[in-house]
Description:
Elements: E1 6-7, E2 13-17, E3 25-26, E4 31-35, E5 38-43, E6 48-49, H1 51-59, E7 64-68, H2 73-80, H3 93-105, E8 106-109, E9 119-120, E10 124-128, E11 131-136, E12 144-145, H4 148-151, E13 156-160, H5 164-176, H6 178-181, H7 184-204, H8 209-228, H9 233-236, H10 246-263, H11 268-279, H12 290-293, H13 301-308, H14 310-319, H15 329-333, H16 355-369, H17 381-390, H18 397-406
Antiparallel strand pairs: 1-2, 2-7, 3-6, 4-5, 8-13, 9-12, 10-11, 10-13
Helix pairs in contact: 5-7, 7-8, 7-10, 8-10, 8-11, 10-11, 10-16, 16-17
The protein binds fe (ii) ion (FE2) (2 copies).
Amino acid sequence: MVTKYREIDTESRIAIDADKLIVGKRLPFDVFVKDRGIIKHLFNKGMPFTNISKEILKEKGISEVYILNNESHSIENYLSATADKKISPYDNPALFKQYSFYKDEHYQIDKNLLLSNTKINFSLFVLEGFNIKTIVEASEKSSALITDSVLDAEGDILIKKSDMPLYHNYINSLLKEKAASDKPDIKAIAIKENSKIVIKDLLDDPRSGEKIKESKLLVNNMIDCMFQNRDSIYNLLTLRGYDYYTYTHSVNVGVLSIGLGVAIDLKKGDIEKLGIGAMLHDIGKSALPHEILNKQGKLDDIEYKVLRNHVIEGEKILRTHKEIPEESFAAVLQHHEKLTGKGYPFQLSGNDIKLFGRITAIADCYDALTTRRPYKPAFTPFYALSIVAEETGDYDPDLLKTFIKMLGKIK
Ligand SMILES: [Fe+2]
Ligand SMILES: [Fe+2]
C-alpha cells in the first residue's frame, strides 16, 4: 500500500514517513531532511539504507523525509519491494576482482573540465556501480568531440592510466584558451586536477624531488585561489560521493585543511606548510602492500597494524626531501591521533597534538566519510558532518565548529 504523501515546498519535494524506508535496500531517490527549517541532502540515491542510517534519523528526531517530485515515480515500487539480497560486491569475490582490476587500470578525472564541443584525444569511461562502460572512444590518431550526452553520464568518469599525459596536455591547453581560463572555477578545477596527477605520480615514485617541488607550487596556487575567493574551495574539492582513490583523497584533505587554515586566519606562510603536509599525509601508503590496501573484506589484526604503519612510512619518505618544512610533519604524523588519546601511532592526547595534526585529522575523517567504498556508501556532506561532530571528544571542538561553518553551504 502506498503511504500518503504531500507537497512541501516550491521546489516540489514530497514528504514520506521516515519509517517507510526499508533497511537493507538501496534508495532509488535522494533523501532530504528539514534541519532548522532548511532542506538538507541527507542520503544519496543508490546508497543502501542501513540500521545505522535508521539510527541517525531516530537520534535526530526525524520522522519525515523528503524526496524530489521528479523521482516520486519510484516510490510505489520501492515501498512494495522487499530488501535486496546482495547489495555489495564485498560479498562477491568475482565482482570485487573485476572492480579492483578496473580501478587499477583507470584514473579518475573531474567531469567539470570536460567542456561541451571540445576535442579530446583520449577515451572516456564511466564507472557504473562496479562495472565500467566506454562513453567516448578517442585516441591520439582519432580525436572525438565531447557531446552533451557524455556530460549527462552519471557516475565517476575515468580515463585509461596510460592516457594521463594526454589528459594533462588537455588541461594545459584549456588553461591557454582565453575563454576557459578566464573562468575562475575552471582555473581552480584545473589546479585540483593537476595536483591529483602530481600526487598520483608521487605515490608511484615517492622519492621524486621534482614532484615534491611541483606539489608545493600547486599548494601555493590553491592558497592564492582561496585567498581570492573563499568559495573556490568547492571547485577545488572533488565533491560528489566519488570512489576512493588515494590521490583524490590526498588532494581533498589538502584542500580542506588549507580552507580551514584560511578560515582561522593563519598566516599565508603557515598555510603553505599546513597545505603541503596535509596533501602528502598519506604518502606512506605508497610503501604498503597492494593486497592490504585493496583487500576484499575486513583486515585482520596484523594487516591492520601494517596499514597503520603508513604514518611512520610517510614520515620516513618525507625526511628524504629537504624541501618539506619541519612544521608540515605534524600533519603527516598526527592525522590519525585523537584528542581522547585513542588514535595512533603514539596515542597522543590533548595539547600534545599540534594544530596541523588537529586540522588534518578533521579533514581526513570528513573526506573518508564522503568517499564511496565497495563496502560503504558515500555519505552526503551533511550526514558526514553530523557523524564527525558526534564523535565527541575526538576532534578539536573549535576547529570543528569553523569546519562545519566553512562547509555549511554544501547541501
Ligand atoms: Fe592516513
Ligand atoms: Fe587519509
